[in-house]
């Protein structure tokens, strides 16, 4: 293994899930895990099997990983139980994860306070648990909880905990700044001391961001000898969050000679990866985020614009395209063509850069994004928009009208119920079809009525299902007249795809997203439109 190789470990789906207000669904976890794997991360930690139904469902049917090792998180065995009879370890063993990361106490204060056992017994817990897991998984990693606090209080004991994990067969010893209170210089000094004491061990670093130093501390640890770095997308995590793995990936790739599994082509998807998380969480992206924020390469009028137009290096520390972002000139925005061309190449569309249709597409995307569309998280809708501009998408159906009604009433048993009914009229080829369907809410009813009309002509749609639905209010100051953005994730035999609709009417926005999802499915399947 090259000493310049840094292994990237993402813990968004476990540590990031502890963020206040964050509640991943199984669909969220699958989409995020697949995106992390595609970009080239070495480890994706999926959660804690046995901790909650969501994690249990995710680990029961995880996505197929091509690059990353799938990791389950847990803790060392409980005092008074053997590793073989510990239910927490059993859940990890039974999971479909290929590796396990076990957290254990390394601060003597916590061994006394939280576990209430002798210090020597805690070493046995660590050694036994790691050995048990190493014998049953491809890898067992040790997460040294509160390691830096433990080192400051009792360096000898903190080191003994690492030795116990190494004796048990741990592939990595991950040093955790669990409360985020250790500064970069301290991190560098302590990691260096551990490196000297355990020269054969593979060390990792896991920093929280309570002093806004998590990325800096992680880089300091790497310089001192750590070869695995852990973090979360956009720095997600409890309290002030974790080290932002998006920033770490870009910095390691573009600012240092360290090597990672993220190549130059994958790096161009970093902005989309960052924004994917925010779309899944239904929250706005940070516009000032390093590398990937909307304002990361924005320049206002005057001297800055003049200098950037002559030589972008004047005010841009890296080319925005290298991380999938774009330059934004606030006064006279000429950016966007290269970004659109890159997106077209991603979906397999080759077009002459001087083709006038590209210019029209750029302006259409800008107009729609001004209205509230977000194509970074809705690749299927962007593909349809682009292919329609290029004249490649046939007319599979045409909406004549739809109507949705909600009926809130007391039923015969005295229960208050709300029922939704949708009526849809569409033209399919030369035939006009009207259908009616009930549903669990207006969007479900609309979806069912539309499918009911289309399925006889396009039976391939029967395998398609809606897996996620999110609504964001774009103009909250407008109250009940606010513009809404609807993101819909669909799934079928061709995988998963996301579409977007925007309108002051949430049902209209939902229909637009639903229609895009159906058309994308038909187009990608090569279905011919009805005559």
Which strands sit side by side, in order, in the main sheet?
1-2-3-4-5-6-7-8
Tell me the CATH topology of the largest domain: TIM Barrel
Q: Terminal Cα separation, in Å? A: 60 Å
Class from helix and strand fractions: alpha/beta
Helix content: 25-40%
| Approximate shape | globular
* Second-tier CATH architecture of the largest domain: Alpha-Beta Barrel
Overall pLDDT score: 92
**Number of E-state strands:** 16
Q: Tally the helices: what do you get?
A: 18
- Any idea how many domains? 3
Biggest sheet descriptor: 8 strands, parallel, barrel
The proportion of strand residues reads: 15-25%
CA radius of gyration: 26 Å
In CATH, what is the class of the largest domain? Answer: Alpha Beta
**Corresponding CATH superfamily of the largest domain:** Aldolase class I
Poorly predicted runs of 5 or more residues: 301-306, 330-335
Record the SSE blueprint.
Blueprint: E1 7-10, H1 26-39, E2 43-47, H2 53-60, E3 69-75, H3 87-94, E4 99-105, H4 108-115, H5 119-134, E5 139-145, H6 147-153, H7 155-168, E6 172-177, H8 184-197, E7 203-207, H9 214-224, E8 228-231, H10 245-255, H11 264-267, H12 270-280, E9 298-299, H13 303-310, E10 328-329, H14 337-346, H15 356-371, H16 379-389, E11 398-410, E12 416-428, E13 431-439, H17 442-454, E14 465-473, E15 484-492, E16 495-503, H18 506-524
Parallel strand pairs: 1-2, 1-8, 2-3, 3-4, 4-5, 5-6, 6-7, 7-8, 9-10
Antiparallel strand pairs: 11-12, 12-13, 14-15, 15-16
Helix pairs in contact: 1-12, 5-7, 6-7, 8-9, 16-18, 17-18
Catalytic activity: pyruvate + acetyl-CoA + H2O = (3R)-citramalate + CoA + H(+)
Protein name: Citramalate synthase
Family: Belongs to the alpha-IPM synthase/homocitrate synthase family.
């Amino acid at each position: 293994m090259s000493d310049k190789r840094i292994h990237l470990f993402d813990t968004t789906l476990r540590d990031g899930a502890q963020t206040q207000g964050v509640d991943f669904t199984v669909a969220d976890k699958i989409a995020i895990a697949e995106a992390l794997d595609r970009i080239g991360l070495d480890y994706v930690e999926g959660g804690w099997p046995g901790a909650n139904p969501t994690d249990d469902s995710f680990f029961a049917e995880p996505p197929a990983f091509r690059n990353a090792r799938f990791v389950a998180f847990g803790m060392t065995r409980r005092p008074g139980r053997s590793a073989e009879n510990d239910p927490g370890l059993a859940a990890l063993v039974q999971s479909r994860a290929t590796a396990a990361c076990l957290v254990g106490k390394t601060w003597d204060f916590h061994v006394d306070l939280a576990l209430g056992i002798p210090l020597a017994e805690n070493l046995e817990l660590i050694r036994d648990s790691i050995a048990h897991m190493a014998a049953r998984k491809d890898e067992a990693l040790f997460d040294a909880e509160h390691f830096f606090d433990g080192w400051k209080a009792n360096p000898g004991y903190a080191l003994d905990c690492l030795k116990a994990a190494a004796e048990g067969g741990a592939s990595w010893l991950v040093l955790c700044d669990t409360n985020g209170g250790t500064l970069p210089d301290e991190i560098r000094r302590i990691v260096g001391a551990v490196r000297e004491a355990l020269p054969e061990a593979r060390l990792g670093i896991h920093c929280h961001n309570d002093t806004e130093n998590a990325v800096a501390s992680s880089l300091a640890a790497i310089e001192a000898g750590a070869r695995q770095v852990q973090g979360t997308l956009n720095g997600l995590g409890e309290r002030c969050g974790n080290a932002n793995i998006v920033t770490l990936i870009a910095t390691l790739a573009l600012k240092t000679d360290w090597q990672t599994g993220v190549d130059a082509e994958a790096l161009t998807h970093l902005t989309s990866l960052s924004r994917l998380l925010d779309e899944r969480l239904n929250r706005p992206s940070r516009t000032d985020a390093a590398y990937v924020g909307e304002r990361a390469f924005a320049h206002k009028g005057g001297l800055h614009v003049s200098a950037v137009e002559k030589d972008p290096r004047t005010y841009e520390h890296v080319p925005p395209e290298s991380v999938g972002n774009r330059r934004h000139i606030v006064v006279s925005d000429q950016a966007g063509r290269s970004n659109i061309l890159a997106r077209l190449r991603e979906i397999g569309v080759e077009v002459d850069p001087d083709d006038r249709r590209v210019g029209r597409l750029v302006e259409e995307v800008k107009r729609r994004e001004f209205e509230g569309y977000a194509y970074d998280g809705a690749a299927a809708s962007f593909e349809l928009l682009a292919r329609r501009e290029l004249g490649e998408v046939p007319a599979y159906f045409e909406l004549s009208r739809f109507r949705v009604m909600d009926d809130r009433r007391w039923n015969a048993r005295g229960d208050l119920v709300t029922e939704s009914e949708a009526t849809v009229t569409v033209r399919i080829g030369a035939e006009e079809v009207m259908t009616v369907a009930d549903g669990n809410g207006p969007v479900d009813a609309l979806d069912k009525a539309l499918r009911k009309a289309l399925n006889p002509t396009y039976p391939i749609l029967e395998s398609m299902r809606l897996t996620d639905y999110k609504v964001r209010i774009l103009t909250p100051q407008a109250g009940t007249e606010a513009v809404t953005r609807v993101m819909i994730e669909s799934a079928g035999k061709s995988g998963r795809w996301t579409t977007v609709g925007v309108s002051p009417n949430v049902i209209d926005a939902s229909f637009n997203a639903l229609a895009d999802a159906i058309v994308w499915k038909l187009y990608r399947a090569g279905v011919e439109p009805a005559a």
